[in-house]
Design goal:
The complex is a heterodimer of chains A (137) and B (376).
Chain A (H helix, E strand, L loop, with lengths): L16 H8 L4 E5 L5 E2 L14 E5 L3 E10 L13 E8 L4 E5 L13 E8 L5 E7 L2
Antiparallel strand pairs in A: 1-2, 1-3, 4-5, 4-7, 5-6, 7-8
Chain B lengths: L10 E8 L10 H16 L8 E5 L4 H8 L5 E5 L5 H15 L4 E8 L25 H16 L3 H16 L12 H6 L2 E4 L1 E2 L9 E9 H4 L7 E10 L15 H15 L8 E4 L4 H10 L8 H5 L17 H5 L5 H12 L12 E6 L3 E9 L1
Parallel strand pairs in B: 2-3, 2-4, 9-10
Antiparallel strand pairs in B: 1-7, 1-8, 4-7, 5-6, 8-11, 10-11
Helix pairs in contact in B: 1-2, 5-9, 8-9
Classes of the chains: A mainly beta (137), B alpha/beta (376).
Chain lengths: 137, 376
């Protein structure tokens, strides 16, 4: 087993750390303003709705709908060279925020804008687990 | 009543110039910018000492540009190397001239992305979504085109009409980089990059520079060529999802509509009055999205609208008559504004739109812009 993970890894900072800690524990979380309740991703230093400073992280259902998806035939990083063609999807969570992720698993030929998807978690390094999505039957 | 009505026809484009387009590893940004500037000066017959405003885009350092050109203006604006900047810069120059902050503005854009192997994705443009392999403006447009296909039934063969029409124009432009005609089947069989987009949906990456010189309508009278007037401008940003760069759930329909309507109102015209469209075409779908927001066809019907050569010279709406970004040159909107001026002057030779009196420029991006140019 190789320790060299060749794909780009997230740059973890104070703002996004909770997202990655939740992901490592198998939970999908989004930032939520404790003042006005607005949920957003990626996290923001202030709430983009009310400009409040008090924000928290909320574990969400992990369910959503496909906004769109594309298939990369070009590897912009060497680490993706062995993966092409690979699918990237955009998912609108039931709770509102939109995430970019990968569409994985069987049944990708059934992908359609608006199709139901749910999250799964793929550990890629000891520290980082990537939330990905699959189509729901 | 237009909010910007007082600016109608106040400001003129008096000089335009460009370098050859291609792969020039031996020349830097300043060298290319200087050549375009020299061409624009010659075009209007102005002495360089009269230039008292400088707006640069994609130039590393504005002051070095001034040093190279031997000018020290009293108004300067540098803009970042983003594709959406051209009309933003032109509108800023217009406002500065109208306010009297300067009398003659040189706008200079240079791009050395080809010879320096710029990729527009991956490590050179880090993003929060990199861990999932999502990168590049092309991927964002592929995401949007997939939605357009799902929502409105648009097909890749309809998308091909855009690339085919624009390439046809490039075959008529001696300056253009890509001058061999292509067919719809060529488009359909091109190398996939990020499906549903293929190679012929992507703009070129080439070196080159463009310059425009603007002044007031009154001052324009003393210069070499008939002025081209800026008759309408409109603008609207969409920043709510800037973390997914170059993407909008609705293809910026509302923003483009707002920008276009402001420009139409200011100019006192409508879409049917447009003789030629210069449309920012970083990727072919952008032209489809633009046609809807600009009101050239109903929402969702751009695919059907472009079928059968609508965008070609001789068609209903000649678009990107220089070959655009897809086939002429990747000058990020700036060369399209030069083409608008040349069309209105009647300088376009084999690609001239007959009796061209109104040209629209549009950029459908997170900073959407619309300009209306007319003959002075």
């Amino acid at each position: 087993m190789s320790n060299a993970y060749a794909k780009p890894l997230p740059k973890i900072d104070l703002l996004n750390r909770p997202f990655w800690e939740h992901a490592k524990a198998g939970r999908l979380a989004v930032q939520r303003c404790t003042g006005c309740g607005h949920r957003h991703m990626p996290p923001s230093p202030v709430c983009p709705t009310c400009l409040g400073e008090n924000q928290d992280w909320e574990v969400v259902s992990g369910r959503g709908r496909l906004v769109s998806w594309v298939t990369f035939h070009r590897a912009y990083w060497g680490g993706f060279g062995a993966d092409v063609p690979y699918d990237v999807c955009m998912v609108e969570l039931d709770e509102g925020p939109i995430l970019v992720s990968n569409l994985v698993g069987a049944g990708q030929d059934k992908a359609a804008v608006g199709a139901a998807v749910s999250v799964l978690f793929e550990p890629v390094t000891p520290e980082i687990t990537l939330p990905k999505f699959r189509l729901v039957e | 009543m237009s909010e910007l009505g007082h600016l109608k026809d106040k400001i003129a484009v008096v000089g335009v110039g460009n370098t050859p387009y291609g792969n020039f590893p031996e020349i830097d940004d300043y060298g290319l910018g200087a050549r375009a500037f020299r061409a624009a000066l010659a075009d209007c017959g102005l002495e360089k000492s009269r230039i008292d405003g400088l707006l640069v885009c994609r130039i590393p350092y504005y002051a070095r540009m001034g040093e190279v050109l031997g000018i020290s203006p009293r108004w300067t604006i540098p803009l970042p190397p983003h594709g959406r900047m051209s009309a933003m810069g032109i509108i800023e120059a217009m406002a500065a001239l109208n306010a009297g902050l300067c009398n003659y503005v040189a706008l200079i854009y240079a791009n050395i992305g080809r010879s320096r192997r710029v990729n527009y994705g991956g490590e050179e443009s880090p993003n929060v979504w990199d861990p999932w392999g999502y990168t590049s403006p092309g991927a964002a447009h592929a995401m949007m085109f997939r939605r357009h296909m799902a929502k409105y039934g648009t097909t890749t063969r309809q998308l091909a009409e855009v690339s085919v029409a624009v390439r046809h124009h490039a075959t008529l432009n001696p300056d253009a980089v890509m001058r061999s005609p292509i067919t719809i089947d060529d488009h359909e069989n091109a190398r996939p990059i990020v499906l549903p987009l293929r190679l012929l949906d992507y703009c070129l990456i080439n070196d080159g520079a463009v310059s425009l010189i603007l002044t007031t309508k009154e001052r324009a009278r003393d210069l070499k060529k008939p002025p081209v007037l800026i008759s309408g401008v409109g603008a609207k940003e969409a920043f709510a999802r800037a973390s997914i760069p170059n993407f909008d759930l609705d293809f910026w329909y509302g923003e483009v509509r707002e920008a276009a309507n402001a420009a139409y109102d200011m100019a006192g015209i409508g879409p049917a009055d447009v003789d030629a469209l210069m449309c920012y075409d970083n990727f072919s779908p952008t032209i489809l999205f633009s046609l809807e927001g600009l009101g050239h066809c109903p929402r969702g019907e751009s695919g059907r609208f472009v079928e059968g050569g609508t965008l070609k010279l001789g068609g209903k709406l000649p678009t990107n008559t220089d070959g655009g970004h897809l086939s002429n040159s990747y000058m990020q909107g700036w060369a399209l504004n030069v083409e608008a001026v040349r069309q209105l002057r009647g300088e376009c030779g084999r690609r001239q739109v007959p009796d061209c009196a109104v040209v629209q420029f549009a950029a459908t991006t997170p900073c959407s812009r619309s300009l209306i140019y007319t003959r002075g």
